[in-house]
Amino acid sequence: MSARLADGVGTERAHHFETVAQQRYAATLGIWAWLITELLLFAALFLVALIVRIQHPEATQEAARHLKFWIGAVNTVVLIVSSLTMSMAIEFSRLGWQRAMVRAMLATAALGSLFLVLKGYEYYADYTEHMMPFLGSRPYELAASPASRLFVNLYYVATLLHGLHLLTGISLLLGMTWMASKAGFLSRHQNWIEIYGLYWHFIDLIWIMAFPILYVVNR
Amino acid sequence: MSASGTVDSGLANREPHAPEATLDRPADYLHAESTLRSWFLTTDHKRIAILYLASITAFFIVGAVAAGVVRLALVVPNGAVMTNDTYNKAFTIHGVVMVWFFLIPSIPATFGNFLIPLMIGAKDLAFPKLNLTSWYVFMTGALFTMVSVVLGGIDTGWTFYAPLSTAFSNGWVLPALIGVTIVGFSSILTGLNFVVTIHTMRATGMTWFKLPIFVWTHYATSLIFLLATPVITTALILLIMERAFHIGVFDPAFGGDPVLFQHLFWFYSHPAVYIMVLPGMGVISEIVPAFAQKKLFGYRFVAYAAIGLASVTFFVWGHHMFINGQSDLASLAFSALSFAVAVPSAVKVYNWTATIHKGKLRLDTPMLYAMGYIGLFVLGGLTGLYLATLAINQHIHATYFVVAHFHYIMVGGTVLAFLGGLHFWWPKFTGRMYNEAWGRISALLIFLGFNVTFFPQFILGYLGMPRRYATYPPEFQLLNVLSSAGATILAAGYIFPMLYLVYSLWFGKKAPANPWDAKGLEWETASPPPTLNFTSPPVVPRVPYDYPIQEQETKAQHR
Ligand code: HEM
Ligand SMILES: [Cu+2]
């Protein structure tokens, strides 16, 4: 990763590194290592979902037909577009176009929030359709099929965990946008944008896996 | 250099905020600043290591007290000393605290943190703030678990098997589970920091095959931290959801499967036993050459063995589930693979003994611990093979044989390596020497006490005494009393070092930079090291373990 940077754009060396190149290498390796652990976290969850699907195919399909396919699909598009705006922010940061970068970052945060709003609406619809089996006090639509609860509950665990990552991502992004709007940011911390971008793409990637595994293959 | 250096050029070259150096004590990392804030907000890897050292020592004491309660209960066969409930809580607290809050962070978070940058010639770990964060994450997780202990404890055992932990246990399971989940993140952050540091921060000339084995084993450990911990996090999240909301994954009534939890649990926890043991192997690989004044035998093989262990260890988890309804084919494969794990372990043992052979041996305290380690690790490892044998496992699974097996490795191995390393690097950490006579006495006491405590448990297990019961048939009493008596000797052996080491902090002799004539960059700098580790860039030696005795070995190899 050695993208060309415009004049006046760069990274300030921290005291314990010898060179800026070393520092950037460490940051890149660090974020990739972190993303691998995150991937394993979700992989274990998806594995459990697949095991449930293999052991109880009918119940899983019945439950999956209650998921809101179109909301999921729209959300997939929303996140992919947000990855595009994030990539634009990274490119602008390299060029030193600070205002454009800040706008692209705000757009990314807005799209992420849109995802959460749609997801929240989806949960609300699930609630009204009695598709929240973990709520002990509320009747469950598919009570006749106990194994379906299992799939639905896993759907909540997986999407909530993803939502939590997205929420963290949006908060970090807004905090960083605020700092990035100050003068001189790009000459000192351009690398932050690159590193953060990888995390954002990762959140997107997890959804791109979750959507088929939960919504599509079981239809 | 700027041209302004006139009269006071000496002053101008000094770092603006570095404190004035005094003749008696040049500013080292311990004395650079002394406010509480400078400790709790430090990003110096050495200070963070000390924070970890203090915290895990506290947990060791908690865990040891719980162990004492267990051994007290087992002095009589009829369970008259305490209620069964208390007994169950005692062994659970013991296991949870010792595994999750002592053994897993023990060597990496303390010695690894302190020494890896020194050994590779760096100023700090790659991410100093993340390093501090990991300690706060650790303490947060610990807080949750301690809350559960204080509120009344839990009785699930350290393995948290469903459905006991999800449906039947009445204790404060949730806070404990949340605590253990959180602690996992501190392991991940530590592992990540080490991997990146070892890749990117090595001094010029420090190539991979000049790294001390200590660094290699920590690299292997860090890979396990990164690749196994997330899976236990997911397993624990599902367990928390199951207990809190009955989501059904581990409950057969909803089509779930409790054995699935065991798979996820052991997929992490078998590799985790190598998280506990690999760093200790690294410590022994430093101590043995130093006290034999001889190059480590077969350096490359020891390094490969570390990576070999870290890889094979991911494929043997099923040996914990031989009699839990696993298919015969799976059991066969897991059994064979478990035998394979023994190979790299044995490589290391052979290399240490070959290093001792014809060395100029000095039996100082660290070396006594190292020798104890080698012997006990062999016994622990070999009994692992018994357990991995399908037919024998039927007989000794879930008996005291298993308890003895893993204590030989985790206490006989890791704890001895921890104490050996603590004595070896104590002069480096603190700048003080401890009392050698007391050191040797304690090392011998621990070895003796350990064997008296745990050897009888092999026999008990072989005779069929199951683990985790508060009562047992009267004919087992003699061996149990012996075991409890050994535990008191062991306790004395642990208390002495705590006293004389702390004493040495104020009254010990000042330590020279390299009290043992040991090789390695950490001995090139002052004891204790300055905040940025080296005053001038360290010179990497030609070969690792550049000890006086080298030639014979190479000759012998060619013969
Ligand atoms: C030489 C390699 C090893 C082999 C072949 C081996 C084999 C085994 C087997 C087959 C069991 C299951 C016994 C049963 O429950 O029936 C077991 C249990 C155990 N081993 Fe090992 N082991 C080895 C090394 C280690 C190491 C290095 C550690 C720790 C640092 C360790 C810690 C444990 C623990 C904690 C348990 C018991 C877990 C529990 O049920 O609470 N083992 N070992
Ligand atoms: Cu195992």
Automatic annotation (TrEMBL), chain A:
Limits of the Heme-copper oxidase subunit III family profile domain: 29-219
PROSITE patterns: COX3
Regions crossing the membrane: 31-55, 67-90, 102-121, 154-178, 198-217
Record's subcellular location: Cell membrane; Membrane
Keywords: Membrane, Transmembrane, Transmembrane helix
Superkingdom of this protein's organism: Bacteria
Similarity comment: family membership: Belongs to the cytochrome c oxidase subunit 3 family.
UniProt xrefs under PANTHER family: CYTOCHROME C OXIDASE SUBUNIT III, NITRIC OXIDE REDUCTASE SUBUNIT E
This protein's name: Cytochrome c oxidase subunit 3
Origin species: Methylobacterium cerastii
Gene: ctaE_2
TrEMBL record, chain B:
Chief localization: membrane
Location of this chain's protein in the cell: Membrane
Segments crossing the lipid bilayer: 49-73, 93-120, 132-154, 174-198, 219-240, 260-284, 296-317, 329-347, 368-392, 398-425, 437-459, 479-503
Cross-referenced InterPro entries: Cyt_c_oxase-like_su1_dom, Cyt_c_oxase-like_su1_sf, Cyt_C_Oxase_1, Cyt_c_Oxase_su1_BS
Family annotation (PROSITE patterns): COX1, COX1_CUB
Start and end residues of each Cytochrome oxidase subunit I profile domain: 39-544
Domain of life: Bacteria
Record's bilayer topology term: Multi-pass membrane protein
Pfam families per UniProt: COX1 (PF00115)
Record keyword Metal-binding present: yes
Keywords: Electron transport, Heme, Iron, Membrane, Metal-binding, Respiratory chain, Transmembrane, Transmembrane helix, Transport
UniProt record similarity statement: Belongs to the heme-copper respiratory oxidase family.
Protein name as annotated: Cytochrome c oxidase subunit 1
Native organism: Methylobacterium cerastii
